Amino acid sequence: MYRRSAAAAVLLTAALTLTACSSGGGKADSGAEAKAKPPASSAAPDPADTPAPSAPAPDAKPTGPVLPDAKLTPKTGTFTAQEKKYLSGRVPEKMDPAAVLQSGQEACQRVQYTAKRDKDAATGAVITGEIPGAKDAITHLCPDQKPILAAAEKGFPEGPRTSPAAGTYRALTQASTCTWEAKSKDGSILASGPETPPNAGDKIAAAIPSGTAEFNSSGCYAWIPA
Prior knowledge:
Blueprint: H1 2-36, H2 81-87, H3 97-117, H4 119-128, H5 134-140, H6 146-153, E1 156-157, E2 161-162, E3 167-171, E4 179-183, E5 189-193, E6 205-208, E7 214-218, E8 222-225
Signal peptide: 1-20
Region (Disordered): 21-81
Protein name: DUF732 domain-containing protein
């Protein structure tokens, strides 16, 4: 009897000890969880996350307020008269005019680099807008490229074109996938081409007859008078 009571006492003591440990561990865990929770984040934006104003596309004029011509001055040095003409009405308020000027200079560099290797490619890039802002950049910043601009102003990009001037045009591509057709007002085809599938590298021409209401082309990049 004594042995059973002693054994029971030992078991009871062990059970109480385990219960106390379990209870204490739970409190410790709760405290750890409470400490692990981060404080609520502030809703105020971080100034570092606010993007700086970017320069407008070279061929686009700002829609908002712009710097007056009297304030078109760089942080260091001076602008030339032609550079000021280019920047006039083009620089948004609170923007460094030099950043806008750089966009125009980069357009000039692209035209010059391309024209040095392939004048047709440079002309096509101006026609299609592949070099944004090329027209104004050439006019004011790189007038040596005006022959490219003059050729581009007589041309047009591939795709549908309504009421084109009659005449013979040359595609500024050597791709064999270039096709074209001229339609009248009633939709009938007046002319189309090429008559035979071109080989890679062949020059492709299109004769647009008078009375053409729509000229459509695909895979031809751009056209200029032949």
